[in-house]
Amino acid sequence: MKRELNALQKRRKNGIMAMASLFVLFSIVFYISSTRVEPVVFGFYLGDEWKLISEWEVASKSGVLIFLVISLVGILFSYAQFIRDKKLSIGSFLFGFGSIMAFLCWAAAGKFIPLTGMLQATVLLSVPLIFGSMAGLLCEKSGVINIAIICCIYFSSCRKFVSKFNLGINLRSNSWSSSFVDISLFLNKVSGRSSYFRFCY
After folding, report:
1. Which domain covers residue 47, as residue numbers?
2. How far apart are CA 118 and CA 70, in angstroms?
3. Are 98 and 71 in contact (CB under 8 A)?
4. Is 114 helix (H, G, I), strand (E, B) or coil?
5. Are residues 133 and 112 in the same domain?
6. Which residues pair with 39 in a beta bridge?
């Protein structure tokens, strides 16, 4: 007799099926039908800091195979967790990591990938999205559904650029005048005397 699945278990089952489908697709595109055999070089340092691993060179197809195996391990681990009615977080992470790295090995065959620089740039560029996500979470918890958060982010960056440009402040500077503009715009937003678009600074 089949066990009746609740809504959460159905979502987990659909997630495992989606991961398995993507694994088959990635295996066909990145490994089976690929003719790229050039080596891929991963760099693990930016400057003159202490180096544990300076570079890692691997053949494109071998790298794809290694990371596809990691993805498969993630799928199998997720399935084991699903049977035990537990979360799929670790398995999903392994699948995502393996899939992204397999794509990099396939797409960057014969090239150098500064992995540390990519991670640093990812963290720096994700800050506005993290703030936007936090704003959406706070709005939802307070009972207000705000679907214009990305518009607020775009408008705030535009307003900051225009304000600093009109005042003749170097946009890349960390001077007191630049900080004063930031603080004044923030206080203008908090004071509640401005319009909705100013509030979206």
Report:
1. 7-116
2. 21
3. yes
4. strand
5. no
6. 59
For residue 45, report the phi and psi dihedrals to the nearest 5 degrees. Answer: -150, 160
Instruction: Give the three-state DSSP class for 96.
Output: helix
- Local confidence pLDDT in tens for the 201 residues of the chain: 456 778 888 888 999 999 999 999 999 999 998 888 888 888 776 666 555 566 778 888 888 999 999 999 999 999 999 988 888 889 999 999 999 989 988 888 888 887 777 777 788 878 777 877 787 788 788 887 777 777 777 766 666 666 666 665 555 555 555 555 555 555 555 444 444 444 444
pTM of the model: 0.63
Q: In the block, which residue shows the tokens 């979206």?
A: 200
The span from the CA of 108 to the CA of 42, in Å, is 10
Where does the chain show beta strands of DSSP type E?
Answer: 39-43, 55-59, 112-114
Q: Residue 88 is encoded by which pair of tokens?
A: 């799929």
Residues listed for the chain: 201
Residues 44 and 104 in one domain: yes
- Strands 112-114, 55-59: pairing is unpaired
Which amino acid, one-letter code, is at 3? R
